Protein backbone atom coordinates (compact mmCIF):
# COMPACT_ATOMS: atom_id res chain seq x y z
CA UNK A 1 0.00 0.00 0.00
CA UNK A 2 1.28 3.47 -0.93
CA UNK A 3 1.38 5.91 1.99
CA UNK A 4 1.16 9.57 0.93
CA UNK A 5 3.00 12.16 3.03
CA UNK A 6 2.86 15.75 1.72
CA UNK A 7 5.24 16.15 -1.24
CA UNK A 8 6.38 12.53 -1.31
CA UNK A 9 4.99 9.00 -1.05
CA UNK A 10 6.35 5.95 0.74
CA UNK A 11 6.30 3.02 -1.68
CA UNK A 12 7.08 -0.55 -0.64
CA UNK A 13 10.07 -2.23 -2.31
CA UNK A 14 10.24 -5.66 -3.90
CA UNK A 15 13.42 -7.65 -4.45
CA UNK A 16 14.03 -8.42 -8.12
CA UNK A 17 16.65 -10.81 -9.42
CA UNK A 18 18.81 -9.55 -12.30
CA UNK A 19 20.17 -11.65 -15.18
CA UNK A 20 23.64 -11.74 -13.62
CA UNK A 21 22.25 -13.23 -10.39
CA UNK A 22 22.43 -10.09 -8.25
CA UNK A 23 19.37 -8.75 -6.48
CA UNK A 24 18.03 -5.20 -6.64
CA UNK A 25 15.13 -3.54 -4.89
CA UNK A 26 12.48 -1.91 -7.08
CA UNK A 27 9.39 0.07 -5.98
CA UNK A 28 6.22 -2.02 -6.08
CA UNK A 29 2.86 -0.79 -4.86
CA UNK A 30 1.68 -4.28 -3.92
CA UNK A 31 4.88 -5.63 -2.34
CA UNK A 32 5.62 -5.95 1.37
CA UNK A 33 8.86 -5.29 3.24
CA UNK A 34 11.13 -2.26 3.33
CA UNK A 35 9.89 1.06 2.02
CA UNK A 36 11.31 3.58 -0.45
CA UNK A 37 10.58 7.29 -0.56
CA UNK A 38 9.48 8.55 -4.00
CA UNK A 39 8.43 12.03 -5.13
CA UNK A 40 4.73 12.42 -5.66
CA UNK A 41 3.80 13.04 -9.29
CA UNK A 42 1.47 16.01 -9.44
CA UNK A 43 0.44 17.49 -12.76
CA UNK A 44 -3.10 18.69 -13.17
CA UNK A 45 -4.85 19.14 -16.50
CA UNK A 46 -4.31 22.90 -16.27
CA UNK A 47 -0.58 22.39 -15.55
CA UNK A 48 -0.29 20.08 -18.56
CA UNK A 49 -2.08 22.49 -20.87
CA UNK A 50 0.09 25.43 -19.77
CA UNK A 51 3.28 23.43 -20.26
CA UNK A 52 2.23 22.39 -23.78
CA UNK A 53 1.01 25.87 -24.79
CA UNK A 54 4.17 27.44 -23.34
CA UNK A 55 6.32 24.98 -25.27
CA UNK A 56 4.48 25.58 -28.53
CA UNK A 57 4.12 29.35 -28.37
CA UNK A 58 7.13 30.27 -26.25
CA UNK A 59 8.08 33.87 -25.62
CA UNK A 60 9.03 34.65 -29.23
CA UNK A 61 5.52 35.77 -30.09
CA UNK A 62 5.93 38.60 -27.57
CA UNK A 63 9.42 39.64 -28.70
CA UNK A 64 9.66 39.28 -32.47
CA UNK A 65 6.56 40.92 -34.05
CA UNK A 66 8.02 44.42 -33.76
CA UNK A 67 11.30 43.39 -35.37
CA UNK A 68 9.55 41.47 -38.15
CA UNK A 69 7.26 44.39 -38.95
CA UNK A 70 10.16 46.87 -38.82
CA UNK A 71 12.35 44.80 -41.16
CA UNK A 72 9.64 43.84 -43.66
CA UNK A 73 8.07 47.28 -43.93
CA UNK A 74 4.50 46.06 -44.50
CA UNK A 75 1.88 44.08 -42.65
CA UNK A 76 1.29 41.73 -45.60
CA UNK A 77 4.97 40.82 -45.92
CA UNK A 78 5.16 40.35 -42.14
CA UNK A 79 2.27 37.88 -42.37
CA UNK A 80 4.08 36.02 -45.17
CA UNK A 81 7.15 35.77 -42.92
CA UNK A 82 5.02 34.44 -40.05
CA UNK A 83 3.25 31.89 -42.26
CA UNK A 84 6.52 30.66 -43.79
CA UNK A 85 8.01 30.37 -40.29
CA UNK A 86 4.97 28.33 -39.31
CA UNK A 87 5.51 26.01 -42.30
CA UNK A 88 9.15 25.46 -41.28
CA UNK A 89 8.05 24.81 -37.69
CA UNK A 90 5.50 22.26 -38.90
CA UNK A 91 8.19 20.48 -40.92
CA UNK A 92 10.32 20.29 -37.78
CA UNK A 93 7.36 18.99 -35.77
CA UNK A 94 6.70 16.29 -38.38
CA UNK A 95 10.36 15.26 -38.21
CA UNK A 96 10.10 14.91 -34.43
CA UNK A 97 6.86 12.95 -34.78
CA UNK A 98 8.55 10.56 -37.19
CA UNK A 99 11.55 10.19 -34.87
CA UNK A 100 9.18 9.49 -31.99
CA UNK A 101 7.47 6.74 -33.98
CA UNK A 102 10.72 5.23 -35.24
CA UNK A 103 12.62 5.33 -31.92
CA UNK A 104 10.17 4.45 -29.17
CA UNK A 105 12.39 5.29 -26.19
CA UNK A 106 11.77 8.05 -23.68
CA UNK A 107 14.22 10.92 -23.54
CA UNK A 108 13.43 12.92 -26.70
CA UNK A 109 16.59 14.43 -28.26
CA UNK A 110 18.89 12.51 -25.95
CA UNK A 111 17.32 9.16 -26.86
CA UNK A 112 17.32 9.93 -30.59
CA UNK A 113 20.97 11.01 -30.64
CA UNK A 114 21.98 8.10 -28.38
CA UNK A 115 20.33 5.65 -30.75
CA UNK A 116 21.79 7.26 -33.87
CA UNK A 117 25.25 8.56 -32.93
CA UNK A 118 26.12 6.95 -29.60
CA UNK A 119 26.63 8.03 -26.01
CA UNK A 120 29.28 10.75 -26.50
CA UNK A 121 27.23 12.97 -28.80
CA UNK A 122 24.10 12.29 -26.75
CA UNK A 123 25.95 13.47 -23.64
CA UNK A 124 27.24 16.57 -25.46
CA UNK A 125 23.70 17.40 -26.65
CA UNK A 126 22.30 17.00 -23.13
CA UNK A 127 25.13 19.05 -21.64
CA UNK A 128 24.57 21.87 -24.14
CA UNK A 129 20.84 21.78 -23.38
CA UNK A 130 21.42 22.02 -19.62
CA UNK A 131 24.26 24.53 -19.61
CA UNK A 132 23.46 26.81 -22.56
CA UNK A 133 20.00 26.40 -24.15
CA UNK A 134 17.78 26.27 -21.05
CA UNK A 135 19.49 29.08 -19.11
CA UNK A 136 19.47 31.33 -22.19
CA UNK A 137 15.79 30.58 -22.80
CA UNK A 138 14.94 31.38 -19.19
CA UNK A 139 16.89 34.64 -19.41
CA UNK A 140 15.04 35.68 -22.58
CA UNK A 141 11.65 34.88 -21.05
CA UNK A 142 12.54 36.77 -17.85
CA UNK A 143 13.79 39.81 -19.79
CA UNK A 144 10.67 39.80 -21.97
CA UNK A 145 8.44 39.62 -18.91
CA UNK A 146 10.41 42.42 -17.26
CA UNK A 147 10.05 44.76 -20.24
CA UNK A 148 6.28 44.17 -20.42
CA UNK A 149 5.85 44.45 -16.63
CA UNK A 150 7.78 47.73 -16.42
CA UNK A 151 6.37 49.36 -19.59
CA UNK A 152 3.25 50.80 -17.83
CA UNK A 153 5.53 52.73 -15.46
CA UNK A 154 7.43 54.28 -18.38
CA UNK A 155 4.75 55.07 -21.00
CA UNK A 156 6.79 57.68 -22.90
CA UNK A 157 10.07 55.73 -23.17
CA UNK A 158 11.67 52.32 -22.78
CA UNK A 159 12.16 51.07 -19.21
CA UNK A 160 15.71 51.56 -17.88
CA UNK A 161 17.99 48.62 -18.65
CA UNK A 162 19.07 48.24 -15.02
CA UNK A 163 15.44 47.98 -13.88
CA UNK A 164 14.66 45.42 -16.56
CA UNK A 165 17.70 43.33 -15.63
CA UNK A 166 17.01 43.56 -11.89
CA UNK A 167 13.40 42.41 -12.31
CA UNK A 168 14.54 39.59 -14.61
CA UNK A 169 17.09 38.43 -12.02
CA UNK A 170 14.38 38.52 -9.33
CA UNK A 171 12.05 36.45 -11.55
CA UNK A 172 14.70 33.83 -12.25
CA UNK A 173 15.73 33.75 -8.59
CA UNK A 174 12.12 33.29 -7.46
CA UNK A 175 11.57 30.60 -10.12
CA UNK A 176 14.70 28.72 -9.00
CA UNK A 177 13.67 28.82 -5.33
CA UNK A 178 10.16 27.57 -6.11
CA UNK A 179 11.42 24.37 -7.76
From TrEMBL:
The entry's localization annotation reads: Membrane
Q: Which organism is it from?
A: Ladona fulva (Scarce chaser dragonfly)
This protein is called: Y+L amino acid transporter 2
Its taxonomic placement starts with:
Eukaryota, Metazoa, Ecdysozoa, Arthropoda, Hexapoda
Per its UniProt record, what InterPro entries does this chain match?
AA/rel_permease1, AminoAcid_Transporter
Q: Which PANTHER family match?
A: AMINO ACID TRANSPORTER, LARGE NEUTRAL AMINO ACIDS TRANSPORTER SMALL SUBUNIT 1
Predominant localisation class: membrane
Q: How does it sit in the membrane?
A: Multi-pass membrane protein
Question: Where is the signal peptide, in residue numbers?
Answer: none
Annotated transmembrane regions: 45-63, 75-97
Q: Supply the Pfam families for this chain.
A: AA_permease_2
Its keywords, alphabetically, are:
Membrane, Transmembrane, Transmembrane helix
GO cellular component terms, A-Z:
membrane
Gene Ontology molecular function: any one: L-amino acid transmembrane transporter activity
Amino acid sequence: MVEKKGEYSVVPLKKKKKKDGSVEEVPQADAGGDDAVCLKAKMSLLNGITVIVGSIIGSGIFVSPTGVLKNTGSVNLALVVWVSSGVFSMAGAYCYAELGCAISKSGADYAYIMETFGPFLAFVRLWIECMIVRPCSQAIVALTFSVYALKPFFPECDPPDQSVRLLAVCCISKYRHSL
